[in-house]
Amino acid sequence: MAQALMVDTKLKLAFETGLNEKGEPILKSKTFSNIKKEATADGLLSAAQAVGTLTDTPIVSITRNDSYTIVE
Predict the structure, then answer these.
(1) Closest Cα partner for 28 from 55, 1, 3, 6?
(2) Sheet strand arrangement including 3-19
(3) How far, in Å, are 11, 50, 55, 70, 71 from residue 44 at the CA level?
(4) Domain spans, the chain
(5) pTM for the whole thing?
(6) Alpha-carbon distance 32 to 8, whole Å?
(7) Model confidence over 12-22: pLDDT tens digits?
(8) Could you read off the pLDDT of 29-71 as tens digits, one per residue?
(9) How large is the greatest C-alpha to C-alpha distance in the chain, in angstroms?
(10) Where is the DUF1659 domain (predicted)?
């Protein structure tokens, strides 16, 4: 039976930096690598909020990206 083994976790924060000429939001993102695989959703939210206090632009999304290797 195949197994999925987690090999990497990243945290991506998207910030709204302004509006374009059509009035649509302009988004910039920052990805943090080397996140502990055991990190909880609450822990990642707390970390993202702490990073958010260091910038004048609001965070509009927080995404956890896990990568897996499939083995037999």
Answers:
(1) 55
(2) 25-32, 3-19, 59-71
(3) 8, 10, 17, 25, 28
(4) 3-71
(5) 0.86
(6) 11
(7) 999 999 999 99
(8) 999 999 999 999 999 999 999 999 999 999 999 999 999 999 9
(9) 53
(10) 3-72
